[in-house]
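Supplementary Note 3. Input sequence used for the single-chain structure prediction.
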Amino acid sequence: MSLNNKHMNDWRLQGQERYLGGIKLTHRRYKPMSTSWDHDHCEFCGSKFSVHQGDFAAGYVSMDLKHWICDGCYNDFKERFHWVLVSEADPEAEV
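The predicted structure, written as discrete structure tokens, is reproduced below.
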């Protein structure tokens, strides 16, 4: 089975290619966007990111901080989505 077909029928794939394909990601600790927005979910599996115990405290996020991806889903789909990892300190530099 090829890498591209490895997860072809995976329940986590719901058309994310439209907005997550080939984008830049950085790995960082989760920080709420505001006091009224205290958590986010993995774009694939729905796992919760927050500062609360039991939730993911870090993961991969798009440069606009809108799309979070847990480590497991990142590893499962990195070849399929062709993500570019960048350093949080220098968003233009590839790591």
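The CA atoms of residues 43 and 84 lie 17 Å apart. The beta strands are 24-29, 40-41, 48-49, 58-62, 68-69, 84-85.
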